[in-house]
Amino acid sequence: MKKNIGMLVCLLSIIALAACASSQNSSPSSKNNSTSSSKVSEQSKSKNKTDATKGSTVDSSKKSESSDKEQSSVASSQSSSDPQTSPTQGGESGEVKPSERVEENPPMDPSVAAGLLIEKGMQGSQVQAVGGQRVRLNVPLIIQRYWNYCAPATVSMMLASRGINVDQAQLANEMGTDESFGTHNSNAIRVLNRYMFGYDAPYGNQAGYRLATVTNPSSDSEDMRLFKQRLIQNINDGYPMYYTFDNSKMYPGRSGEHNVIGVGYVLTADGADVAYVYYLDPSYMVQDPVYGGLKIVSPEELLNAMVTCMEPNYGW
Question: Which ranges of the chain does DSSP label H, i.e. alpha helix?
């Protein structure tokens, strides 16, 4: 009996030892598997983190590119919608200052106004029209800069009609234009001749402008006959006239002597006489919205406005 018990105890001990050995043999494998699993998990997490970082970098790059494109698009849109700078913007506004605004001409007889509707021809060109032949030089209008610059502006236009460009300020300086009177006609014609012909005054039959004074403005006077003759000759030769008249006679309400440039004439229907006279007025106060400074009057009206002036009346 004791022998059997001893054998049983021995058997149990062997089983216990075997179980212990089995437990010890399996533990490192489990740890290795656990470590391996942990490493795999950490590698997986690291890889995922890296991938996530890469994805974030890519996304950030894409967002940056998208943002740049959006900003570029907005800038392009703003650039295309911005108005382009033109010469009339900024300092050079092109706007007429209040002091430079012009008034319309005094009311004009419809038949006289109709005479202004003519073609623009070259120098000395002749245009046939109902009521008589019309001859007018194509002279560029120059507005006088100051109230006393009518003579410099007129001479500047006369020179420009012959292809000679001289600024009216320079002419005013050479003519001795002043604030108290303006310009004496003798000085204006002297400077005109110097630029156009190379000398101050013509001698004998030399080409050049001369001054004339009207004493009798009646239609049958010698003054009238000479004026018409000189007018036709000058215009046909391509040389404008220089007129001085009393402002109050031409423009009611105005005063003082004024200089303008004679640019043409209209003959009567039979071509035997001068019916009307064209002139360009440089004054900013009498510019017409349609015709500018172009005016038309009868020879009698013009000479009647000349005769009361102190200065010689016209240059031819």
Answer: 2-81, 110-114, 150-160, 168-175, 185-197, 222-237, 247-250, 299-306
- How is residue 115 annotated by DSSP? T
Residue 106 — pLDDT band, cuts 50, 70, 90? very low
Q: Where are the domains of the chain?
A: 123-315
The predicted pLDDT at position 227 comes to 99
Q: Is the pLDDT of residue 151 over 60?
A: yes
Q: Helices 299-306 and 222-237: crossing angle, nearest 10°? A: 110
> Cα–Cα distance between 3 and 18 in angstroms, integer?
23
121 backbone dihedrals φ, ψ, rounded to 5°: -100, 175
- CATH number for region 123-315: 3.90.70.10
**Angle subtended by helix axes 150-160 and 168-175, to nearest 10:** 120
What is the Cα gyration radius of the chain?
51
Evaluate the CA torsion angle 118, 119, 123, 124 in order and state its sign: negative
Report d(CA 212, CA 242) in Å as an integer: 10
75: confidence class by pLDDT, cuts 50, 70, 90: very low
The CB-based long-range contact list for 50-56 (8 Å cut-off, 24+ gap) reads none
Separation between Cα atoms, residue 203 and residue 132, nearest integer Å: 36
Give the bridge partners for 296, in sequence order.
278
Give the β-pairing of 134-136 and 211-212.
Answer: unpaired
Label residue 131 left, alpha or beta by phi (over 0 means left) and psi (-120 to 50 means alpha). Answer: left
